[in-house]
């Protein structure tokens, strides 16, 4: 589904990603962990198509297409979704209006029929139930005045509604209380499907107890320095990231 | 010195007979002489600094419309969602009874200037007999010389007028370019209240110059909710002046939506002359193409404990130009005034321009005042967020732009009217859906 090869990305003259390779197949869940500033959000932003990121080397293929050729909205319509680490507040834009406009814009682009407001609301109600989100949030402006946890749950609610094929969750667990964490995990697990893949960026092993990954990767210094199964997350929790660097040194010696 | 613009208009004035008393002939004569002497404001006029009258001054317009009474007007133009009767319609400056709806309402007189000039001109003296000593007020002078019609609305003391009163000014196409004048008068009696919509529309393509001057007096404790919707075709020229004076405890709530016209100027002068009077306003202009809009706000606090709360937004795209001048003067003795003005602007193109000039002058004590103006661009983070969910760049831009404008009308309680304005603004924003992701070129 997704194949990243030797990706080098520069922001504001600074090399952030330096030879990152990663392959994600349909149906898989990949967790990415790594120290602050390692480039995890950069990876998510590059996948979603944010401007200002200069790809100086390497390639990203998504379902056989060159992802870097596509505009953000084309990527969204093709099934790429990024749950933001810091969701943006947009005063004056009603949440429900925005979601319906987004869903219908994607559907138009895919040549599907648009949903009318009845069909849309039916879908909204189904998804709201899973995330235990208050109805009231839908009538507010996008993320405006939402608590940190509400913003994160709203991201997952959007994901549930838009039904992407490749979802990248950037620290969706940060700032969530334990109940909200379970709801978010339930929302993700309910969507797990042989045709859908997830990249879950997190600092905490705890999330991975609820969303059990097929692979865990460590992103440091702009590339994947270690990959393993879910037990890798436990070892990281125990020993910290320095353990990987030391192991590398030992291996090299 | 009469320019090409003024010449035919002033000639028409000298030859026309004047209804009303001797005083009116005197008032018009005075304004005429002032115009002959000063002409249109030139490049050194501070008030017209950003809106040059050079091009306009060289154009010729026919004075008024002899056929105004019989012009066919598309009935759809007159409609405004959520607003029904009463309705007063003026076409190229003349009242059209056949297009108006005037149910009799207790406590309110819905009349016209032409009617009142015939029947009881002296009642108008307080409104029409104004010096306009400043040469910058050329269009007010011109209006005084030539205006023969317009709405005259009087609400009796203590009356609460329930229905929303709809005033429609229509610019209708003609074989020549016209200069039409309209003089409106609104007087809300002691403790009375009125809700009014002043609606400017027109047939596409005409290049008339409309000169609409409204005078508002709110007696003690009166309240007026005024919504101005300027939705003229993008070929029209429109000069508007709104003057309001508020007696003690009076309250003026103004919403002003500026969406149409090729070239427009709006002078808005509010005098808080009674203790504890209050002026609240929300306004927006949204421009594109080669539109030019100049809004000049002058608020004077001349009594104690008066307040104003002004929020204005401006948007300019493509090659348009927007000007906002927001002046608040707190006169000596107007102690305890509270004056708040915020003006935020959005520039959507490199070739568009916005000038904002906040002016604050305080000569009194114990005054609270805050004044702020900014010019910025759309938030890139918000744009990316919307696009990452599937909206095209164009859709995301119009959605964010509309959201920016909404402060001017999101507090309208009439839902149908609010949604109509929302749709109107979205329609007027040039940045529409375009599959290539490119924005449409300027027209
Ligand atoms: N627009 C930018 N301009 C300059 N530097 C940037 C910009 N965006 C990101 N960076 C830098 O790139 C590096 C990687 O940032 P990124 O947000 O990808 O890290 P991260 O792995 O997500 O960290 P965290 O765990 O703290 O979220 C950081 O050093 C950051 O300061
Ligand atoms: Mg990050």
Our Rg estimate of chain A from Cα atoms comes to: 18 Å
Please mark out the parts of chain A with pLDDT under 50 across 5 or more consecutive residues, or reply none: none
Strand content range of chain A: 25-35%
Going across the biggest sheet of chain A, name each strand in turn.
6-9-10-3-11-12
**Order of SSEs of chain A, N→C?**
EEEHEEHEEHHHEHEHEHEEHH
Please tally the helical runs of chain B, counting DSSP H or I stretches of 4 or more residues.
10
Q: What's the pLDDT, averaged over the residues of chain B?
A: 92
Distance between the termini of chain B: 37 Å
Write the layout of secondary structure elements.
The complex is a heterodimer of chains A (253) and B (443).
Chain A: E1 2-11, E2 14-24, E3 29-33, H1 40-48, E4 53-62, E5 65-66, H2 72-77, E6 80-83, E7 90-94, H3 95-109, H4 117-131, H5 136-139, E8 141-142, H6 148-162, E9 166-170, H7 178-191, E10 197-201, H8 207-210, E11 215-220, E12 223-228, H9 231-239, H10 242-252
Parallel strand pairs in A: 3-10, 3-11, 6-9, 9-10
Antiparallel strand pairs in A: 1-2, 1-4, 4-5, 7-8, 11-12
Helix pairs in contact in A: 4-6, 6-7
Chain B: H1 6-15, H2 22-38, H3 54-58, E1 62-63, H4 75-78, E2 87-91, E3 94-95, E4 108-112, H5 113-119, H6 125-128, H7 138-146, E5 151-155, E6 165-171, E7 178-188, E8 193-202, E9 209-218, E10 223-230, E11 237-246, E12 251-258, E13 263-272, E14 278-287, E15 292-301, E16 307-316, E17 321-330, E18 338-347, E19 353-362, E20 368-376, H8 380-388, H9 393-405, H10 415-428
Parallel strand pairs in B: 1-7, 2-6, 5-7, 6-8, 7-9, 8-10, 9-11, 10-12, 11-13, 12-14, 13-15, 14-16, 15-17, 16-18, 17-19, 18-20
Antiparallel strand pairs in B: 2-3, 4-5
Helix pairs in contact in B: 1-2, 2-7, 8-9
The structure holds adenosine-5'-triphosphate and magnesium ion (MG).
Domain SUF system FeS cluster assembly SufBD N-terminal (chain B): 23-165
Family (chain B): Belongs to the iron-sulfur cluster assembly SufBD family.
Pfam family, one (chain B): SUFBD_core
């Amino acid at each position: 589904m997704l194949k990243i090869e030797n990706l080098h990305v520069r922001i504001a003259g600074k090399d952030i990603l330096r030879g990152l390779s990663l392959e994600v197949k349909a149906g898989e869940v990949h967790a990415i962990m790594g120290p602050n500033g390692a480039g995890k959000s950069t990876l998510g932003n590059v996948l979603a198509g944010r401007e200002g990121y200069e790809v100086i080397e390497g390639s990203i293929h998504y379902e056989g297409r060159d992802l870097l050729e596509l505009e953000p909205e084309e990527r969204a319509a093709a099934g790429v979704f990024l749950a933001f680490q810091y969701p943006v507040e947009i005063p004056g834009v009603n949440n429900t209006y925005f979601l319906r406009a987004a869903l219908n814009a994607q559907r138009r682009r895919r040549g599907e029929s648009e949903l009318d407001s009845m069909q849309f609301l039916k879908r909204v109600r189904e998804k709201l139930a899973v995330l235990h989100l208050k109805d009231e949030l839908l009538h507010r402006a996008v993320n405006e005045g939402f608590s940190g946890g509400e913003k994160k749950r709203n991201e997952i609610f959007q994901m549930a509604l838009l039904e992407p094929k490749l979802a990248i969750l950037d620290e969706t667990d940060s700032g969530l209380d334990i109940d909200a964490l379970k709801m978010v995990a339930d929302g993700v697990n309910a969507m797990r499907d042989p045709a859908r893949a997830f990249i879950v960026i997190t600092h905490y092993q705890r999330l991975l107890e609820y969303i059990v990954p097929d692979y865990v990767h460590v992103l440091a210094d702009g590339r994947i320095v270690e990959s393993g199964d879910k037990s890798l997350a436990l070892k990281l929790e125990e020993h910290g990231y320095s353990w990987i660097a030391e192991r590398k040194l030992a291996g090299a010696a | 010195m009469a320019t090409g613009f003024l010449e035919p208009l002033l000639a028409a004035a000298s030859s026309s007979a004047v209804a009303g008393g001797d005083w009116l002939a005197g008032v018009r004569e005075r304004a005429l002489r002032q115009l002959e002497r000063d002409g249109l404001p030139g490049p050194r006029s501070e008030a017209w600094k950003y809106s040059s009258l050079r091009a306009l001054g060289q154009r010729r317009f026919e004075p008024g419309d002899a056929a105004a009474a019989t012009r066919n007007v598309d009935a759809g133009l007159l409609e405004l969602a959520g607003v029904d009767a009463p309705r007063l319609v003026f076409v190229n400056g003349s009242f059209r009874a056949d297009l108006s709806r005037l149910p009799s309402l207790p406590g309110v007189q819905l009349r016209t200037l032409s009617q009142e000039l015939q029947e009881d001109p002296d009642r108008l003296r307080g409104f029409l007999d104004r010096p306009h000593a400043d040469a910058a007020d050329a269009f007010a002078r011109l209006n005084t010389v030539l205006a023969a019609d317009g709405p005259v609305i009087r609400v009796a003391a203590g009356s609460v007028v329930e229905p929303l009163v709809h005033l429609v000014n229509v610019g209708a196409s003609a074989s020549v370019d016209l200069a039409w004048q309209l003089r409106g008068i609104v007087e809300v009696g002691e403790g009375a209240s009125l809700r009014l919509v002043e609606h400017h529309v027109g047939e596409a393509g005409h290049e008339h110059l409309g000169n609409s001057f409204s005078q508002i007096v709110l007696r003690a404790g009166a309240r007026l909710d005024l919504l101005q919707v300027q939705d003229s075709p993008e070929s029209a020229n429109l000069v508007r002046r709104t003057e309001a004076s508020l007696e003690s405890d009076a309250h003026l709530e103004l919403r002003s939506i500026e969406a149409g016209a090729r070239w427009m100027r709006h002078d808005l002068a509010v005098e808080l002359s009674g203790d504890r009077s209050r002026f609240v306003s929300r306004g927006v202009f949204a421009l594109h193409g080669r539109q030019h809009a100049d809004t000049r706000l002058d608020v004077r606090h001349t009594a104690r404990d008066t307040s104003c709360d002004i929020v204005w937004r401006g948007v300019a795209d493509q090659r348009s130009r927007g000007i906002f001048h927001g002046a608040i003067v707190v006169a000596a003795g107007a102690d305890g005034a509270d004056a708040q003005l915020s003006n935020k602007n959005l520039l959507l193109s490199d070739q568009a321009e916005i000038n904002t000039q906040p002016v604050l002058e305080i000569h009194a004590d114990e005054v609270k005042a805050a004044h702020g103006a900014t010019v910025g661009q759309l938030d890139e983070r918000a744009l990316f967020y919307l696009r990452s969910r599937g909206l095209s760049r164009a859709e995301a831009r119009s959605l964010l732009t509309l959201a920016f404008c909404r402060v001017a009308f999101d507090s309208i309680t009439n839902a149908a009217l609010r949604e109509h304005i929302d749709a109107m603004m979205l329609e007027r924003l040039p940045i529409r859906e375009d599959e290539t992701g490119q924005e449409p070129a300027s027209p």
